[in-house]
Structure prediction request, 237 residues.
Amino acid sequence: MLKEIATDIWVADAPFKYFGLSVGTRMTVIRLANQELAVISPIPVDNETSQQLNKLGTVSHIIAPNLYHYIFAADFKALYPKAIFWATSGMEVKKPELPIDRIISNDAESFPSDLQCVLFDGFKTLGLKGLDIVNEWVFFHAKSRTLILTDIAFHFDNSFPLITQFAARLLGGYNSLSPSLLEKVATIEKTKVKQAVQKILDWDFERVIMAHGSIINSQGKQKFKAGYESFLNKILN
Prediction:
């Protein structure tokens, strides 16, 4: 079921486990000025959620924002075949069977102008098969002053199971907006990460929606900055 977060922006959550931990996953829906809907990080959709979407507007953009969040995108495309399926670069190689229409790029003329985006370059994680590049695009919805992240930061609090809280206390992301220790160990090209963070900090955002963790509704920019200052071990402008 969709939950309205602010004007023209909604989220829907679904259960999800990673390394056996219940971390949940979240889809974000943006209604553009032309009444088209952009869906970021699709999750499984039931009839009720589909009916909600259809009442809000026309699903015209389905976005797989990094090399991990694509699992339900093909099902979403089947449900809305006229929508453009956008994927991060490298997805066409990793999952050539996906019905990708376009690759996200900084000069994509047809990408929704209501959404600004930047490639979070140089960021890696320690995945199930070792070190993996994430290749994540981060989005900014100016109208609602909302930053939309996927896997470059987490924010777990006491609403999550105790074992997830315990892991977050050990690895990072507990009551703070930050990557985990796994990303800190895996990421070597921190100069590129810093450049991406600086671009994000140029945006005027207050709220932060991430795929895994509780939404931050206030002071999001300060919390994002603090989390990445700790990650990079540098003071950011």
Summary: The chain has a mean pLDDT of 94.
